[in-house]
Structure formats: C-alpha cells, structure tokens
Specification:
InterPro entries: NAD(P)-bd_dom_sf, Sc_DH/Rdtase_CS, SDR_fam. It is a single chain. The chain is built from eleven helices and seven strands. It is α/β, with parallel strands linked by helices. It has a single domain, classed as Rossmann fold, CATH 3.40.50.720. The chain has a seven-stranded parallel beta sheet with strand order 3-2-1-4-5-6-7, sandwiched between helices.
C-alpha cells in the first residue's frame, strides 16, 4: 500500500500533523502537507526533503475555493488524513463567539471540505482511505469543552456515515480518537496551563499517535482509540452515564 502512494495531511505544520508527515515519509509514502503556515511547512519539507517524497501547499481548510485549487494541483490522493483542528476550553456561557465559529469552521466544515474534494476520485478508482482525526471528546464530553466536544461528535457522525456509503466503493474510512496529546494545540485551548498541569501524566506522545495512525493506512480499521483505558471509559459512560459522571466529577472538572 505504501510505496508510491500519496498521503495528504492537513494541519501538517506542527504538532501531530508534523509527526504524521515524518511517519508517512518513513513508511515510504509521498507526503503532501497542507497548512496555513507556509514557513513551518517549508521547514518540515527541508527536514524530510532528501527522500524527495514531500510537497507542501499553503491553504486554510475553511477556504473552499483555495482548497479546490490545491487539490486540483495535487492530483491523485490515495490517503487523506484530516488532521487540522483547533480547540478552546471555556465555560459554555463564557465562550467567545469568534472561537465558537472558528472551531466549527475548522474542525467540521474544513474536514468536510477536504473530504468532499477527494471522495469522487476515490469512488471512481474504487480505492482510497480517508482518516479523520476526531477525539475521545467526541465520545465523552466534559465541562469547559462543550463546543469542542460538539465538533468532534460531528466528526464522528460524519465519519460513520461516509464509512457506510463508501464501503460499496471499496474506500476505507477510519476515525482516530486520541486523548490529550502533548502538542501546541494547548497553547490556544489551555493558555493558563491548568489542564496540562492537572492532566500531565496522561498526555500522549504525538509520535506514538502518529505511528498508530499511519499503521492503520490500507487496513479496514473502523477506529483507533488511544489510550485504551480512556476509550473503555467512554463505553462505560455510554452504558452508565449518571454513574460515570457522578464518580468522575473531580476528574472531569480538571480543565
């Protein structure tokens, strides 16, 4: 599956996206990196360029017109990893309207934009893989993440629907549901460092998440849930919501 295949990674300028780029190139893929910050992309390309397997494009996933131009230039997309995302933690009544709009625009609309631009070609070839980076927050919402969790619930709903649709065309669809990852994501989400301080011991290594993600390419994997204990917690919450919310109250209010 790997050799010669093209993997498009959005939000690839830093954090998990940058690690996904490194792992994809290491696995033998041709990596196409898309993000708003061209200088960051160029730095990653320079790091990985000896392979000759990296192309970079500056684009905002919320700009449909720009994306259409980018994807026309990219051409065939064998794997799309929708990684671009943003989050802000605040009480629902204190969330800034512009931050709400941004989360919905990037996390939901941006992901759908990119997906819609590759679906038709994958259907026609009867091959391809769409990987959507969601979150454990899409399974178990907690205080101070109402909008963020809502966007990730939307991502999982969209992912589950297109998985069934595209199965008829032999196109794979996978959701990646990580817990908190030690990346610059929290520079915006948690500028005061409260959550990182309280949850530091459970923060995931982005290299580990990236390896799990790239390893799923070409395999009929429905979801990748890390860490497993957190995924188990969301299942138990689904079965016994009141009990989990009562017993886990102290943990859930750590943000």
């Amino acid at each position: 599956m790997q050799m010669g295949k093209t993997v498009v990674i959005t939000g690839a300028s830093s954090g998990l996206g940058a690690e996904l780029a490194r792992e994809a190139v290491s696995a033998g893929f041709h990596a196409v990196l898309v993000a708003r910050r061209l200088d960051f992309l160029e730095k990653i390309k320079k790091e990985l360029d000896p392979t000759g397997n990296v192309r970079v494009f500056q684009a905002d996933v919320t700009d449909r017109t720009a994306l259409e131009s980018v994807f026309r230039e990219i051409g065939q997309v064998d794997v799309l990893i929708n990684n671009a995302g943003v989050g802000y933690f605040a009480w629902a009544h204190e969330m800034k309207p512009e931050e709400t709009v941004q989360m919905i625009s990037v996390n939901v609309n941006g992901l759908i934009n990119c997906t819609e631009l590759v679906i038709q070609q994958m259907i026609e070839r009867r091959s391809g893989h769409i990987i959507n980076v969601a979150s454990q927050a899409g399974k178990l919402a907690t205080p101070k993440s109402a909008v963020y969790a809502a966007t990730k619930h939307a991502v999982l709903g969209y992912t589950n629907s297109i998985r069934m649709e595209l199965a008829r065309s032999n196109v794979l669809v996978t959701a990646i549901n990580p817990g908190p990852i030690a990346t610059p994501f929290f520079d915006n989400a948690d500028p005061e460092g409260t959550y990182i301080k309280n949850a530091g011991k459970i923060m995931l290594d982005p290299v580990y998440v990236a390896r799990k993600t790239i390893a799923a390419i070409g395999r009929p994997v429905r979801e990748v849930n890390v860490p497993k204990w957190m995924a188990a917690g969301s299942i138990i919450h689904h079965l016994f919501p009141k009990t989990v919310e009562r017993l886990g109250r102290k943990v859930f209010f750590q943000k």
